[in-house]
Q: What sequence folds into this?
């Protein structure tokens, strides 16, 4: 067995442990490398692991209860759409099972190290599990072009772009998500940053609309109990249950469950932060000691740590039934959102800092994202289905085409596939865009380091 195969087997073993096991190991090792005391590093790693398990349990509860309700809604209203939503676990499994997926982790790690050393990013991305987003894009490019090198280059370029976008949104993540020293280099979440920037800027110039201000925290204070996440979640959950045709017990149970999810998700995110604070402090001291020219280093984490914002959760719950309705009436759409509806909050984690937590603006951006995502998921379905067949994925009974919200609805993945249709010219275009972003980021970091 050659050294490359041994390395790949080791990487695959670690990834196979899952995020709740892998993250404590990575956090503990990072803490030790940064100079934290062993006891503090181990406690931090275990606390983060517990936080991730808690988040996954709540998100699983959310999906497990929303899924059947949405399926019943689909049955009740006779919706017939041909592209099946297989959900992010299937999309991740497909991405990692391709030839691109087998190589994406060392490639993404190398990109991150080079960018840290060249001061073109401030993010140390320890969220290794979510490198599957890069593998997803690279795999689609590979199957679109039948060129493995193109797929690997696409994955590397997306990794670089994601780090830069994570840097650019880090200040907002700190301020609006309450996550000091954290950035979110999540392949799906950052994909909607450009969309949110454009739509939010357009809304600034629309008379009347630009005067609307619906801050989630202010709304909660103004309406008291009626603005609190527990009641908002309970009411929206009950409405979804009623639309699904549930009996009294059924829709009240769904309401309480959704209310619980909106309360528990921020608490689990808080537990994550409890574990990350000592690591963030150690990282700051390490950077100050060894990289004095750097302005700051951010710890790159899964977008799950940021979904607890009241605006993110409220908009996501509103868009669950609305997404199904839009899918049913949208001309040309063939994608039925179902399995991935529980990941809608991940689409808005980095939108909220851009809209400054405004409920109205985030909802408007969210509707644009849903509409665009449905068209993208429909268009990308043949390629994703091809990748699934190549990886040995078992297709759902009675379905010919599959897609997903994560990352099948990602404008970034879709743009990569379309640009790569120009082959070498496409590579040059994407490389030039990335180089330009890296240069701008380099200048910004240098300016921040000087305290300007």
A:
């Amino acid at each position: 067995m050659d050294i490359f195969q041994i390395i790949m087997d080791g990487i695959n073993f670690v990834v196979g442990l899952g995020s709740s096991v892998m993250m404590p190991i990575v956090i503990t090792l990072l803490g030790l490398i940064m100079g934290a005391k062993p006891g503090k590093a181990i406690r931090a790693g275990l606390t983060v692991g517990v936080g991730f398990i808690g988040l996954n349990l709540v998100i699983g509860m959310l999906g497990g209860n929303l899924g059947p309700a949405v399926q019943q809604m689909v049955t009740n209203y006779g919706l017939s759409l041909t592209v099946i939503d297989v959900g992010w676990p299937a999309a991740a499994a497909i991405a990692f099972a391709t030839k691109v997926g087998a190589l994406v982790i060392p490639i993404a790690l190398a990109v991150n190290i080079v960018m840290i050393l060249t001061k073109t990013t401030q993010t140390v991305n320890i969220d290794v599990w979510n490198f599957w987003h890069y593998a997803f894009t690279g795999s689609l490019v590979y199957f679109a072009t039948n060129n493995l090198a193109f797929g690997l280059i696409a994955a590397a370029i997306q990794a670089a772009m994601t780090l830069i976008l994570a840097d650019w949104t880090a200040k907002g993540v700190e301020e609006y998500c309450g996550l000091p020293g954290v950035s979110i280099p999540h392949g799906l979440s950052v994909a909607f940053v450009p969309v949110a920037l454009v739509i939010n800027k357009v809304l600034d110039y629309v008379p009347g609309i630009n005067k609307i201000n619906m801050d989630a925290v202010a709304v909660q204070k103004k309406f008291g109990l009626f603005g609190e996440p527990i009641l908002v979640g309970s009411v929206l959950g009950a409405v979804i249950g009623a639309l699904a045709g549930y009996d009294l017990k059924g829709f009240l149970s769904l309401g309480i469950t959704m209310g619980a999810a909106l309360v528990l998700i921020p608490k689990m995110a808080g537990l994550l932060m409890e574990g990350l604070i000592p690591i963030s402090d150690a990282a700051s001291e390490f950077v100050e000691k060894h990289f004095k020219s750097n302005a700051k280093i951010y710890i790159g984490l899964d977008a799950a740590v940021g979904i607890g914002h009241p605006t993110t959760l409220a908009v996501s719950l509103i868009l669950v039934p609305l997404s199904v309705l839009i899918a049913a009436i949208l001309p040309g759409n063939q994608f039925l959102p179902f399995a991935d509806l529980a990941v809608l909050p991940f689409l808005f984690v980095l939108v909220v800092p851009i809209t400054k937590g405004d409920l109205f603006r985030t909802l408007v951006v969210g509707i644009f994202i849903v509409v665009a995502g449905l068209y993208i998921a429909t268009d990308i379905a043949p390629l994703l289905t091809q990748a699934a067949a190549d990886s040995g994925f078992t297709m759902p009974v009675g379905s010919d085409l599959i897609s997903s919200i994560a990352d099948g609805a990602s404008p970034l993945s879709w743009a990569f596939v379309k640009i790569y249709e120009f082959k070498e010219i496409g590579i040059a275009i994407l490389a030039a865009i990335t180089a330009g972003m890296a240069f701008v980021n380099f200048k910004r970091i240098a300016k921040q380091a000087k305290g300007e």
Observations:
- Residues 3-449 form one domain.
